[in-house]
Amino acid sequence: MEAMTRESERRDQDVVRVGAVAATAARKRDLTPAQRRAVMFAQQQVIMARAAKKAKDDRQAALSRMWLEEDAEHEKTARASARRRGEGDRALHDVSLREAIGHVLRDLRTRDRKTLREVSEKAGVSLGYLSEVERGQKEASSELLSSISEALGVSTAQMLRMVAHYLDSLEV
């Protein structure tokens, strides 16, 4: 008797499973052609979004690699110039204060990976003038130096300390 009850329960479960599969298939069959197209379109959108995200991640990874290579190259040239200074090969000319300020400003800008245009717009300075200040060809007023350093995310005092440190490193 008990065995018969178990068998009937198994059969009932099989019927329920078959019914669930049939209901799912029936739902798919019940879709209109427009609904099928909408489902296919949504699936394509998901696939395209995943591909776009992968492409964006790949581009970001390539940029990160490029920046790391640039940083490594920058460190390599800095070590080489420090080595030259250490050997007594003092072919370097005396650096003026405006050249030191320009060097520090350019270094701050490139480390933050900002363009001249971005910094000049944020500081309210013309792009050409900022470029000349960075190359040490123009002396900027204290107000302009303040706005440029603020645009670079440092205070004027911090920027001037960096200039002093740079000048000290050249004298060593």
TrEMBL record:
Coiled-coil residues: none
InterPro entries: Cro/C1-type_HTH, Lambda_DNA-bd_dom_sf
Biased composition (Basic and acidic residues): 73-90
Pfam families: HTH_3
Tree of life domain: Bacteria
A molecular function GO annotation: DNA binding
SUPFAM superfamilies: lambda repressor-like DNA-binding domains
Region Disordered, annotated ranges: 69-90
Residues in HTH cro/C1-type domain copies: 105-159
Protein name: DNA binding protein
